[in-house]
Design brief:
The protein is mostly helical. It has 2 domains: 78 residues, Arc Repressor Mutant, subunit A (Orthogonal Bundle), CATH 1.10.10; 52 residues. 61% of the residues lie in helices and 6% in strands. It is built from 7 helices and 2 strands; from the N terminus they run ααααββααα. The protein has a two-stranded antiparallel sheet. β1 and β2 form a beta hairpin. The radius of gyration is 18 Å and the shape is globular.
Length: 141
């Protein structure tokens, strides 16, 4: 059975962000595959369906899907479309940390540009982590 996704609800595409739409789509699907939101063997909607739902050019979606296939996240099944590929768990874990490290580097660069030092960033991250933990949410209720 093919699982249907409402991509309008699942993805945040921002045409004015300066980041190409195919890269936004690629990054979001990559994260969803790595965290298991799209399990191995799941079918992704067709290029046409995603393009229609997101109101983007089909070539944009095709480019994102192609990169995901090239990097081993998706596999093309003839006549059935794209499915999430089987991946080595250890490699997936390394990719998660690599992705997080890149995000942290970008955060630190932006913080430095704003005059915020590393210790202040660490304190802010710790505060946000504490506030968003399940325990702290229960205490607020």
């Amino acid at each position: 059975m093919v699982k249907e996704f409402n991509f309008v609800d699942q993805f945040t595409i921002s045409p004015s962000s300066g980041v190409p739409i195919y890269k936004q789509l690629f990054s979001q699907i990559e994260r969803m595959v790595l965290n298991g939101y799209f399990p191995v063997g799941d079918h992704l909607p067709s290029v046409r369906q995603v393009a229609t739902n997101l109101e983007v050019n089909p070539m944009t979606v095709s480019k994102a899907y192609g990169l995901l296939e090239e990097r081993g996240y998706l596999t093309r099944l003839r006549g059935k479309g794209m499915v999430v590929a089987q991946r080595d768990e250890e490699v997936s874990q390394q990719e998660k940390f690599k992705m997080l490290n890149k995000m942290i580097e970008e955060l630190l660069i932006q913080a430095k540009q704003m005059g915020v030092n590393e210790q202040e960033v660490i304190a802010l991250v710790a505060k946000n982590a504490t506030e968003s933990s399940p325990k702290s949410k229960k205490n607020k209720e």
